[in-house]
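During the reporting period the student researcher (J.K.) took over the structure-prediction task from the postdoctoral fellow and processed the backlog of single-chain submissions. One of the processed entries is reproduced below for the supervisory committee.
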Amino acid sequence: MGLSSQELTEEIVRLADDKLAEDIVALDMRDLVAYTDYLIICTARNERQAAAISDDVHIKLKQSQSLLPVNPDRSGDEGWSVLDYLDCVLHVFTEEAREKFDLEELWHEAPRLELTLDTPESRSTTAA
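J.K. obtained the following structure tokens:
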């Protein structure tokens, strides 16, 4: 049996966090839209990091869960990449694009999923 939509969301968040994505937010969309359960939004420092985050999530979910995104847009055009796993949609933005498109404001009524993320301090102690 595969992952639930919340478990998939948590796995995508973990993978993005492992690639040092910043300001990761998961919005619970179940009561608001029919096309997905969760939107995951994160920021990359630049286009190269955005591509690395998207590529890593894509590859690792394919390897570990045999999951492929529907119509992946990992081009990073305008600083925005999307990986659509139906139940969960990952948006990777550069800082400028995240401010421009402001999905959190668009979906301000969506509850946020409580996330457990590595802190910079725990990364430095585990890397030592």
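The committee noted the following: The chain is about 40% helix and 25% strand.
J.K. will present the remaining backlog at the next meeting.
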